[in-house]
Amino acid sequence: MSEEKKEIAAEEEAVVSETPNPSEEEVKETEAKEVAAKEAVTEETKVEEKPEEVKAEEPAPVPEPVDEYQEVVVKLEDLEEESEYPAEEMDVLTGLYDRTMNSITEGEIVEGRILNITDSNVIIDIGFKSEGIVPLEEFDNVEELNPGDEVEVYLEKLESADGQLNLSRRRADFIRVWEKLVEKYENDETIPGVIQRRIKGGMVVNVMGVDAFLPGSQIDVRPIRDFDSFLGKERNFKIVKVNHARKNIVVSSRVLIEKEMEGQRKEILDTLEKGQKRVGSVKNITDFGVFIDLGGVDGLLHITDLSWGRVNHPSEIVKLDQELEVMILDFNEKKDRISLGLKQLQPHPWENVAEKYPVDSTIKGRVVSLTDYGAFIELEKGIEGLIHISEMSWSQHIKHPSQLLTVGQEIEAVVLNIEAEAKKISLGLKQLEPDPWEVIEERYPAGSVHKGVVRNLTQFGAFVELEEGIDGLVHISDLSWTKKVRHPSEIVKKGDEIEVVVLSINREERRIALGHKQVESNPWDSFEENYGIGTETQGKVTRIIDKGMIVTLPLGVDAFIPNPHIGLPRGKKASEVYEEGSEVTAKVMEFDKENKKIVLSINALVKGKEDEDYETFMKKQNSGPTTIGDMVNLGKDEKKAAKKEKKAEEKPAETKKAEAPVKEAEVKEEAPAEAKEDKPEEAPEEKKED
Prior knowledge:
The chain is an alpha+beta fold. It has 15 helices and 30 strands. A five-stranded mixed β-barrel has the order 1-2-3-5-4. Helix 1 packs antiparallel against helix 2.
């Protein structure tokens, strides 16, 4: 230390040792000395310093570590020359010293010497200030280890929180193996491995002591169905992916298999032809077909080409890994899509089908499908027949085949018809039993009376079931003797039990004509006596139609009154004057026994009464016309005379027009009897106008 620095330090110590309340002069003198000392130091060191950084307790500058290290080295060399150790011992000591000076970095593999082996640890010296401890379980060859052996370890950490040197033998082994694996990956080499366990998506393989991932799709060219069967097996693999950051590798055995099959695949594709037969194994089964491995080449065997018969799922015909002989049906130009066939190797089942299943013969089959219109019966693989729903029963009303049959049921049927070209066979089930229509005339002779149930109603009649499977039709005209029936529901309802008479039978067309009204005797014989022409009768309005009214007479028969014979006021309709249920009195105008027809007239009844009243009146007078015709002529003459007499007193045309409707309305409102009493001479004229 220079003299100036010593003086400055002495002065600083003096300042510190002084009393805390120095005089102003002393303070100024001290400050002046400090300034002078600082300037001297600045010139000597040529270092710029701030005034406030100079403190009394600032230590002296320390030389750089490198300079001290160099000085120490020089001193050691001097000591070596002056050392009393022999040269050999000095070399050993120098070597040990040099080892301690080696640069040691974390995260590297270093060599160390085993110092001691305990029950659980191995103490190793790597030339550091402290020894490292490695668990004994990290060494594979524990029995071969001895103190003094050189081993490689991985330096994880120079000094832990406990001041311990952390070493790992397992990590060092992994790094060495990893380097070899990367080298094999770069050189595209094959390595052996053992499949150890199964994980999600694949398997874990032990390759040279390192766990590698084997995806499920890379195990084999065929889909894997039983992964557990590969556990513990040794196979060759190729590294397909390396992740240096995570130290993960992915291996594959499929690429090796595909490489081995390339030659076989090329040979197959070169010799592939349509119609060629090949042997392959079932690789995969789907809902639509089967994939066949032909030896490096995959082909699709569609479900429709598996069998001539009906196939619900390919698994009914083939199994996985099963070997099959198939036919090449088609392939594209690249030959990457190959269609195969299995049924084509077997003869077509429809050959000579008419000889195998002659018409009217009884056959056995299995129900394979049910539809709304019938059931399909499999006679053999590839041959099916249809039992139409109409051919299932003579007597039962079958709405769906499931009422009689179930899928998978074995049944007998009769062959009705064969269309070999269209590949259709018609079968019958009811033909196994006798046809009840063969003896229908004996059971239901014409004119016999039976009871039946109304099963259905139509616009033209009602179907009545005599027994199960035997129906007859009651026409709408045969439902009632007396009613004008518009719809069968007016007489009978569905489900009603009624009596019917068999009118006729058509066995060929399977039809029976029935009658319901024929159960009772024809009442029109008595109607003729009670409702002869000109007979006056009463009835009740049951229906009003556009052409007139339907009236029910006392004996229950319906009669008709046309609109012109109802006697309606001018401009009025029957529905405005009469209501259903109204009582009316009319005269029979027409009676037709054959056509069951009675026509009435209210006008005829009124006219007849007027004629009778007029004749009675004239007889009392002993003069005047005696017939209606005479009365009409008399009325005309009287009117003409009256017109001539009143010409002068005739009112204007407008007044006459205004009064005319009033007179007509008054005439209409008055009853016929009153009109005859007040104005008997005008009755014929009013009747004519109406």
